[in-house]
Design a protein that fits this description.
This protein has 205 residues and is α/β, with parallel strands linked by helices. A 5-stranded parallel β-sheet has the order 2-1-3-4-5, sandwiched between helices. Helix 1 links the parallel strand 1 and strand 2. The longest helix has 32 residues. The radius of gyration is 23 Å and the shape is elongated. The relative contact order is 0.10.
Length: 205
């Protein structure tokens, strides 16, 4: 699994980049190094589960907090662990509130850093799994007929079969037929599965 995950490092200190690359490749991770924010943003996000080790002091460029703000502004998702030699309580509070996954001070403990990377990558793996399930659900939902989709939407709203029949002015047996077909097409084994998969597929009003 590790060889399909990537740790991105943004730090303006070449010795830190070299040390982190050596440390993390030793644990089986792919490592991508950047010394400037512009280079990081030009490269874009990895397509595999990944995390970012982000220095907060980046010379004359943007600082780490500003880089993290730009990541959020772009709508990017990459779990981020801050690394810094200079910090204060307010900075820590602000970056954690903004969604950072960790905050380590330099010089950092290698074991603590590897643990933080592991936790951040676990967060990324879960997000990738959610995105895969959502894409799969959307593909299944594409096979629904307009009436089946309408019935599913009403199920999501919490209506019973009889209430759906009354609202759509169709027979109860017809509702059951459409609902059963929708469950098969969506791969739902029970009503709870139907609601969950339909929400993943964004079948809403």
């Amino acid at each position: 699994m590790k060889n399909r995950e990537q740790v991105v490092v943004l730090d303006d200190d070449s010795s830190i980049l070299t040390g982190l690359e050596r440390l993390l490749t030793g644990f089986g991770y792919q490592v991508r190094l950047h010394s400037e924010p512009d280079d990081f943003f030009r490269s874009g996000l990895p397509t595999v589960p990944a995390c970012l080790l982000l220095d907060n002091q980046l010379g004359d460029c943007l600082n780490g907090v500003q880089v993290h703000e730009e990541i959020i502004r772009r709508g990017w998702f990459i779990p981020t662990v801050f690394l810094t030699a200079h910090w204060n309580v307010q900075v820590v509070v602000n970056v954690m509130r903004a969604g950072a996954d960790g905050f380590l001070t330099k010089p950092f403990d290698p074991e603590e850093l590897v643990d933080a990377v592991g936790q951040a990558l676990q967060h990324s793996r879960l997000r990738h799994q959610e995105e895969f399930r959502a894409a799969e659900a959307r593909a299944r939902a594409a096979a629904l007929s307009p009436r089946e989709r309408e019935v599913v939407r009403l199920v999501i709203d919490g209506l019973l079969n009889k209430e759906i029949a009354d609202q759509l002015d169709i027979a109860l047996v017809t509702v059951k037929l459409h609902r059963g077909r929708a469950m098969r097409k969506l791969g739902a084994g029970n009503p709870a599965d139907l609601v969950h998969i339909a929400r993943l597929a964004n079948i809403t009003r």
